[in-house]
């Protein structure tokens, strides 16, 4: 396709029909009076936009927490910052929203004069496609949005016919450039195509508008089908960029409806799933985790717009934080195609922010250049606070004034809540898209039942001969147990990292008892049973809630060197007010009288003492065949996962299990002869050994003979 240069587009070639014969003044009057049919309603300008607009008037721009005053007649192609992102943001023109808002609020023509001056200056100095195509796409969106205020809504006296013709010629030229230079794939392509579509529906008078419309519509629909996985997650696997793409698709969907353009049902279904992922991924405080080059943003406002076309009581529930709408049927959810899972406590927790939440990343690197080396990473929140966090991205720049490559620090494996083997990343570091073989991730199991959730993920790196398996058990609604199994026959060093929030910077410490290590931080205890060779340290780290900003935050590191299969077992116990007493003991596991290795099975005892109760919890994991029988403490179990709780009188009050066939305590069977692999959940009632347990289809029903009826039915 040919690329039109600005000087080669006279007015008669720019438009079709009657508009091609209009003078500049007539053309301006026509567009001033044609109205806003087929476009979004405009937000009203606000007083808070005035300060930022005043800075723009002075050519003072702040991007990524770097502020520069560029002076009069500045050079658009000169970057005052060492970070290319600063110059990119200058050319995206997001600050036009502030100019338009200030003009809408005050009516002062000084803002219109600045709008005209910046556009004229840019047109004079900058060729089409400067930097890259995605910058052109974002700029076109901002120019058209501000045009709706200055030209269509208020008919600014500052805007002359001559300027308006130059403005339209540049819009047309930039759009042709995009058509010829689309990014091949990814979120940049999406926003570029949306910009072309926006030009087509905003200026149908353009001679090539029909081409713009057909070209962008067809390719946007193709993009939705290719971009969104079957579970609705965007294939770049970035929590933040997922929402950037969703925002552009929803705008496309809305403009298509306003302009009577057909939108395929299959795309509607994919967008609904993308919205569902957004609802689940939002933490109880309304923010999203910063997975894969993301910021800790909130997209509740985007969800509010989404329900215009996709009404759902779940959306209402999330954006109102439980005050309106209806919670989903599933407390926790696995997004199988992406490899992401969200484990959380009941949606009905009041206050809403107090809910417990864990986002688990068993995804691949993801398409494009945003993937971090973070397989089996997770983020955890409780009681209104993010407690274990993904530190974010901070910068895309490889250099800094202090000589530190912060891009690498935030992208590397040690910058996430996972295990580092031999000090190596899960794949060789590159600032952009990977070229080496990527780690192989597998979500081996996801179980969610009343009383517990269980996840089992695995990553195989090509950098070392160690298979890392991570199992997470959520004792709903109290705490998590994270087991890391590192299978190998050789000797390796291991570092297990937990990154805390900035809020924990001056409030984190640890003690080691005879049986365990316990780290205390605001609203969280992190504990491990004491094993020979395991070292504990609290190191200095950083978290970045938004691009260009970083805050100090502590990092908990458990380290060991071991030959053969190694393991870490970590209890994460969040608390609201007073910290409970938590002590963990490694419990030996036997099979046919033989002491088992860590690669076969493991068990721990967790003693919990709060202000109101005392519990003794046992947690058992079978790392081999679930059909084999194991003994630990006074318990015998045939199954994969078992959680058993005793109260202060040593009565069993909770029993949760996955892949369970039989359980005996003190040689007395309390669960037996269950055919196949079963999910069992019995909680909050005393289990007497006289109870009867029966299987029906794929359910295990617990019957208390002292009372009538079934106490609980847990589904597989």
Question: Looking across the biggest beta sheet, what order are the strands in?
Answer: 9-10-11-12-19-16-15-14
Shape: elongated
Quickly count the helices: 15
Instruction: Specify the CATH architecture of the largest domain.
Output: Distorted Sandwich
Rounded to the nearest angstrom, the distance between the terminal CA atoms is 56 Å
Q: What is the CATH topology of the largest domain?
A: Beta-galactosidase, Chain A, domain 5
- Which regions contain 5 or more consecutive residues with pLDDT less than 50? 1-11, 689-716
Percent of residues in beta strands?
Answer: 25-35%
Record field, number of beta strands: 34
Largest sheet: 8 strands, antiparallel
Number of domains: 3
Summarize the structure.
This protein is of the alpha+beta class.
Task: Give an overview of the whole structure.
With 716 residues, this protein is α+β, with helices and mostly antiparallel strands. The chain has 3 domains: 21-186, Chondroitin AC/alginate lyase (Glycosyltransferase, Alpha/alpha barrel), CATH 1.50.10; 228-578, Beta-galactosidase, Chain A, domain 5 (Distorted Sandwich); 580-716, no CATH class. The protein has an 8-stranded antiparallel beta sheet, with no helix packed on it. Helix 9 (187-202) runs antiparallel to helix 10. The two termini are 56 Å apart.
């Amino acid at each position: 396709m040919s690329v039109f240069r600005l000087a080669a587009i006279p007015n008669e070639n720019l438009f079709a029909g009657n508009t091609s014969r209009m003078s500049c003044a007539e053309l301006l009057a026509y567009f001033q009076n044609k109205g806003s049919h087929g476009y979004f309603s405009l937000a009203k300008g606000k007083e808070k936009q005035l300060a930022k607009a005043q800075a723009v008037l002075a050519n003072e721009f702040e991007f990524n927490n770097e502020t520069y005053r560029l002076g009069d007649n500045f050079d658009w192609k000169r970057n005052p910052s060492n970070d290319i992102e600063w110059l990119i943001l200058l050319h995206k023109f997001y600050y036009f929203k502030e100019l338009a808002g200030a003009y809408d609020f005050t009516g002062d023509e000084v803002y219109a004069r600045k709008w005209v001056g910046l556009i004229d200056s840019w047109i004079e100095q900058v060729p089409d496609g400067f930097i890259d195509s995605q910058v052109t796409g974002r700029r076109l969106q901002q120019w058209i949005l501000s045009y709706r205020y200055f030209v269509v809504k208020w008919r600014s006296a500052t805007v002359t016919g001559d300027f308006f013709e130059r403005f339209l010629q540049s819009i047309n030229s930039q759009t042709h450039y995009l058509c010829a230079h689309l990014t091949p794939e990814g979120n940049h392509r999406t926003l570029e195509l949306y910009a072309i579509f926006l030009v087509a529906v905003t200026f149908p008078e353009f001679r090539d508008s029909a081409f713009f419309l057909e070209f962008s519509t067809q390719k946007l629909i193709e993009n939705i089908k290719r971009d969104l996985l079957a579970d609705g997650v965007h294939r770049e696997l970035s929590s933040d960029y997922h929402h950037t793409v969703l925002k552009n698709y929803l705008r496309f969907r809305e403009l298509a409806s306003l302009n009577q353009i057909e939108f395929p049902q299959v795309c509607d279904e994919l967008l609904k799933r993308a919205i569902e992922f957004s609802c689940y991924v939002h933490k109880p405080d309304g923010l999203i985790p910063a997975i894969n080059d993301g910021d800790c943003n909130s997209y509740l406002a985007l969800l509010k717009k989404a329900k215009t076309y996709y009404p759902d009581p779940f959306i209402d529930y999330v954006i109102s934080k439980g005050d309106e709408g209806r919670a989903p049927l599933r407390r926790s959810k696995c997004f199988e195609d992406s490899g992401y899972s969200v484990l959380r406590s009941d949606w009905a927790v009041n206050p809403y922010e107090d809910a417990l939440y864990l986002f688990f990343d068993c995804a691949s690197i993801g398409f494009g250049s945003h993937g971090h080396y973070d397989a089996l990473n997770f983020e955890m929140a409780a009681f209104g606070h993010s407690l274990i966090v993904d530190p974010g991205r901070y910068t895309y720049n490889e250099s800094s004034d202090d000589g530190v490559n912060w891009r690498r620090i935030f992208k590397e494996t040690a910058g996430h809540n996972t295990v580092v083997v031999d000090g190596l990343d899960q794949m060789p570091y590159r600032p952009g898209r990977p070229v080496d073989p990527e780690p192989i991730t597998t979500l081996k199991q996801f179980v969610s039942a009343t009383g517990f959730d269980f996840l089992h993920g695995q990553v195989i790196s090509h950098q070392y001969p160690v298979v890392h398996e991570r199992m997470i058990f959520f004792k709903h609604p109290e705490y998590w147990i994270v087991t890391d199994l590192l299978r190998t026959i050789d000797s390796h060093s291991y570092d297990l990292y937990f990154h805390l929030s900035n809020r924990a910077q001056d409030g984190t410490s640890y003690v080691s008892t005879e049986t365990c290590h316990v780290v205390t931080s605001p609203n969280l205890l992190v504990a491990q049973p004491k094993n020979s060779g395991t070292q504990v340290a609290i190191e200095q780290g950083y978290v970045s809630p938004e691009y260009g900003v970083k805050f100090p935050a502590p990092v908990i590191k458990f380290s060991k060197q071991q030959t053969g299969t190694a393991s870490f077992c970590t209890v994460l116990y969040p608390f609201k007010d007073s910290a409970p007493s938590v002590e963990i003991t490694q419990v030996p596991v036997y099979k046919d009288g033989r002491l088992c290795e860590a690669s076969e099975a493991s068990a721990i005892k967790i003693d919990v003492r709060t202000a109101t109760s005392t519990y003794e919890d046992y947690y058992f994991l079978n790392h081999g065949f679930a059909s084999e029988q194991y003994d630990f403490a006074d318990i015998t179990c045939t199954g994969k996962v078992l959680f058993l709780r005793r109260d202060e009188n040593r009565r069993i009050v909770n029993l949760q299990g996955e892949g369970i066939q039989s359980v005996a305590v003190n040689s007395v069977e309390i669960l037996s002869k269950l055919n196949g692999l079963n999910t069992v959940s019995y909680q909050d009632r005393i289990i007497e050994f006289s109870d009867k347990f029966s299987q029906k289809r794929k359910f295990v029903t617990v019957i208390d003979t002292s009372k009538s009826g079934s106490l609980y039915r847990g589904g597989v």
